[in-house]
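User: Please fill in residues for this 84-position structure.
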């Protein structure tokens, strides 16, 4: 740090909510992998690819459409956890 300069720091919660819709899709993939009862990495890769390819555009659109509600919930909850 350069002497005499002030650095502005944002208040940021240690565990701030992750609002990125991709996280919901990763949960879908993780569930598919868990449910498949795999025995090797090749099987896992196949399940991941099939699951990812099967995600519908409507699912993605629903997640994107939920962003305003997600942000509002975080603001109303003062940055703390929400149902999202």
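Assistant: Residues filled in for all 84 positions:
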């Amino acid at each position: 740090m350069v002497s005499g300069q002030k650095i502005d720091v944002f208040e940021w919660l240690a565990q701030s909510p992750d609002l990125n819709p991709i996280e919901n899709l990763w949960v879908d993939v993780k569930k598919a992998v868990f449910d498949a009862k795999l025995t090797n990495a090749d099987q896992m890769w196949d399940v991941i690819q099939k699951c990812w390819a099967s995600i519908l555009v409507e699912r993605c659109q629903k997640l994107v459409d939920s962003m305003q509600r997600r942000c509002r919930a975080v603001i109303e909850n003062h940055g703390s956890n929400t149902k999202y």
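For context: The chain has a mean pLDDT of 86.
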